Amino acid sequence: MRTFGAVWLGQFISMLGSSLTTFALGAYVYQTSGSVTGFALVGFFGSLPMVLLSPLAGVLADRWDRRKLMLVGDLGAALGIFLIWGVFAGQDAGWWTIKVWYFYGPLLIGSAFSTLCFPAWSSTVPLLVPRKHLGRASGMTELSAAIAQIAGPLIASALLGSIGLRGILLVDAISYIFAIGALFFVRFPMPPRDATKKAGQRSLKADLVEGWKFIRERPGLFGLMVFITTSGFIVGMVMLLINPLVLAFSDIDHLKWIASVAGIGGLAGGLLTSIWGGPQRRVLGIAALSLVSGLILPLAALPPSVPLIAVSAAVFVFTFPLISACNQFVWQTKVPPELQGRVAALRRVVFQAMGLVVSLLGGVLADQVFEPLMATDGALASSVGRVIGTGQGRGVALMFVMLSVMMLTNVVVLWLSPRARNVESELPDALPAQPQKPHVPTPMPADIAADVGAAPRLATTGSTET
């Protein structure tokens, strides 16, 4: 746990620094260009490498030293920050006038290197943390993300007036020193490698296909991945639509207040998870918490109220860390250590792809379909409009109701799928109860060794789940 704590602290400080940059750079782009498209593209180029490169990052995590891979990832991410700082330095020197697209290249570079870190770290945690504490470890990760999400914008707002955006970029770059420094002073246990991989005879494609086959041949894990991905689409739509929902009847100050209350809910969920670790039956916990979040969404269709939406948002976000920790526990205990990197990367690329779909579809559906339907003279004004009202924002409210139906349907499908519902009991654990240190086996006498060699081989992990 000591190694986990040291690396977790370094990554948390770096995450907080990145949160400062994300907020400050987004504010700068929107204020200087006035373009929502330019603002959205900054986020797009920051997330695109995660979708494109995560499979490769997962293969590398299972082939290479994961600690060194994280070092390369953090160093490259820091390079991306320095390149953005260089864009401003060039303008100060009179070499160019900044345009929004100047940031796209550095964002791509930084994000590409950052992509290396997730599968390497996610696949290492089960080797560092005892099985009984994996839920708490996931809770600590969710807690650090929640703190960064809440504190980042607040700290960035306070610093912008004194040190400006370039100062915040420098703070972010310095924060990587903590992440890199922690990695320099620890060692990660290595997962087992078979002789073929040691000889370097396996192609990257073959390794990637092996990770996908592991998921696809286990209906319980595949069903759980489909459930989480579908939930990710619903949550992404909610997070995208909450701003127009609130701004349709209120102002930016109330929106900030709602965001703060929601952040406190996420912080409470992360804190509870880091102390408790989650329920014993993780899939049951995932289903129950998702049911709660699905039942919260229709409250958006009630008469507009800032306090109601704030409390609802806090409860909705409160479930995130708990669901994530439960899901992570299942994958970390059921996937063999030598496959953790590839499997984690494949899960992430599917999840991140849903985020891109949301960014492409959410605004179009709201502006072109649902808002016109719920306008005063819209097609649904005389039917649905009599229940939830008409006018600006009511189309988004209807979308929240439909997203609620999707979430509840998703829970029902999960619970009616026996393989997914019983994945914890049907699939054998791939991890020991305690992390094991490498040891040199004691040679056996020749007669015993011969008997062992003639014994039938055990089935591979998870091969008898049906």
- The CATH class label of the largest domain is Mainly Alpha
Percent of residues in β-strands: under 5%
Low-pLDDT windows of residues: 438-466
CATH topology of the largest domain: Growth Hormone, Chain: A
CATH architecture of the largest domain: Up-down Bundle
Shape: globular
Structural class: mainly alpha
How many angstroms does the end-to-end distance come to? 35 Å
Task: Give the name of the CATH superfamily of the largest domain.
Answer: MFS general substrate transporter like domains
Biggest pleated sheet: none
Q: Specify Rg, calculated over alpha carbons.
A: 24 Å
Assembly type of the chains comes to single chain
N-to-C series of helices and strands? HHHHHHHHHHHHHHHHHH
User: How many beta-strand segments?
Assistant: 0
Total DSSP helices: 18
- Give the domain tally: 2
Percentage of residues in helical conformation:
over 70%
Average pLDDT for all residues:
84
